[in-house]
Protein 1
Amino acid sequence: MTYKTHLAAGYTASLLITSPSTLSEMIMCLGISTIGSVISDIDASSSASRKELGKVTAITTAGIIAIFAGDLFLGIDIISKFRSSAAIMRLITGFLIFIGICVFGEHQPHRSFMHSLAGVAAVSLSFAVIIPSSAKYMAVSMLSHIALDMLNRKKIQILYPLRKPKIAFGVCYADGFVNHILFYIAGAAAVIISAVKVYGIVRGMI
């Protein structure tokens, strides 16, 4: 599937499954699911082109910026979580683990480790070290990416490092009609659900 479909579906899935109930959680959900929705394709550079890696890096950076921008302009106290030395050490440790996983995943065959349950667990754990509550958004959005990719024809090594089973339902092309329909459905759902949740949160604050 295309990146815009993964982004829309990953955010929508995170909203529905994790059900964030505060502005802080909403911003965290948006930022982390943005990263989780595309990070699985960090391995694309080993099988396709550097342009794909560039897209993943750009979107991941956008997700991080969204989190800190929300903290800066909305005062949702995400940065305040890292004021103690212990919290800073967690941030550094979790980030280094995340980078290490990405470096390892980048050099694996496409749709192997970074598209597996082991990959989801590893990346989610790295974010759990940084901010425990962020792990659920990462896990859901990564699983959403994997589920969508299963609809294509290139098989996914879901139980990496085991070679089997490799799954591909082969019901659609990555950039075909089904992809566009899923994008519009997921995109509309994301907008509607976000609007309803933000309205409820703001109304509760009045």
Note: The CA atoms of residues 116 and 158 lie 4 Å apart.
Protein 2
Amino acid sequence: MKPYLPEGKITMIFGDPGQGKTTFAVNIAAALSNGKSLDGTYLCEPINILYQTAEDGIADTILPRLLSAKANISRIFTIEEKDAPLTMDDKRLELAIRKHNAKLVILDPIQAFLGRIDINKANDVRDKTKALAYIGEKTGCTFILLGHLNKSLSNKMAYRSLGSIDFYAIARSILLIGRDPRNHDIHVVCHIKSNLAKEGSPIAFSIAESENSAGEFRYIGPYDINPDDIINGNPERKLSKLENAKMLLLQLLSEHDVPASDIYKIAKKANISTRTVEEAKRELNIEAKKVGKQWLCSMPNLEQEVI
């Protein structure tokens, strides 16, 4: 499902509760277990999948949803966690991937598989997520991590993603799921970060009532909407200067370091003051280093350390 799920890499799916994240993940698993895309067309050879969830029971919640989505259940596996909770750096994860020749792992939600760490601390997050990156590199297995947005008053995705901004930095693809503020029956998936390919267009789906509690997933397809409208929940809302400064920094620094002088010039053209840029840099933990005669700004030092 390119470019949304880069092979052998980490994709994160974020959204507020009740927006359809798990339903979307379940239907991805169902489709790929049959070698199909979400629209039902053939995409690839059927693949084996590991599905781990902590918020919903496998037998009483996820399995009915998979069956409703017509998944090939023989290709979907889980790791028993009765004796010990599974974490991202757990040896059982790679062993299970190799045992079942799994090409996709879904962890829902992220928090449940981090172990006892502070999700707001970059080093703690880094150690856990690096483990997944290495496994993906060695096995070619793709990871989907589901997470809730945090409670920040800010309405921009990058700094409302769970805890440390390193979650945002670690993923090679990030999807935001929310409802169309103009029609709450429509769930929209927006591709808001893609390191390895051009971002995919927004796609939409609906969840119709059915005889069981799972609901019927209905793929709608490409959808015309601005991702900002999804997270704002109000297309008319104007962003603050600080929010605009944060977004500007995230966009400029997503791929490489940028001279501070260039950032200030670009910000000035956008009517954002140097003072506001500095405040945004502090809140995002943007790093600065002197190279020769100029200062370079960069995202928290994570990208170089993760495959």
Note: The first helix runs from residue 21 to 33.
